[in-house]
Amino acid sequence: QVQLVESGGGLVQAGRSLRLSCVASGMIWSINTMGWYRQAPGKQRELVATIYSDDSTAYADSVQGRFTISRDNAQKTVYLQMNNLKPEDTAVYYCNSYLAPYSDYRMHEYWGQGTQVTVSS
């Protein structure tokens, strides 16, 4: 069974940093994209950052220059380094990945359970 498990969330003051991690576990044949989404109370889930299999990246305008996404393919892990955090970054952050399990060798979308990030002013 494939799972994405996030860690690293918490409560921080504005201007500080946090690093989120997400590990993909299970019988995984291949991983394509890995990324982070977030959902604030009363708002829709939005893309924060994505990293592709060729290590190219894409960011939401609101986090460009402050957040950095990276991946460790050997560890099946994606990271989100968040610097200069702002109160508006407060949200539940979800890990997302398109990957193929050994069960069918086809790409499927998976989500983690989410980790809370709260930034105080």
Q: How many helical elements?
A: 0
Our estimate of the beta-strand percent is over 45%
* Mean pLDDT reading: 97
Assembly category: single chain
Largest sheet: 7 strands, mixed
The sequence of SSEs as H and E is: EEEEEEEEEEE
Q: Per the principal axes of the C-alpha atoms, what is the gross shape?
A: elongated
Structural class designation = mainly beta
Number of β-strand runs: 11
Keywords:
121 residues, seven-stranded mixed sheet, mainly beta
Write a structural description.
There is one protein chain. Strands 2, 4, 5, 6, 9, 10 and 11 form a seven-stranded mixed sheet that branches. Strands 1-3-8-7 form a four-stranded antiparallel sheet, with no helix packed on it. The model has no long low-confidence stretch (mean pLDDT 97). The chain is elongated, with a radius of gyration of 14 Å. The chain contains no helices and eleven strands. A hairpin with a 6-residue loop joins strand 9 and strand 10. With 121 residues, it is an all-beta fold.
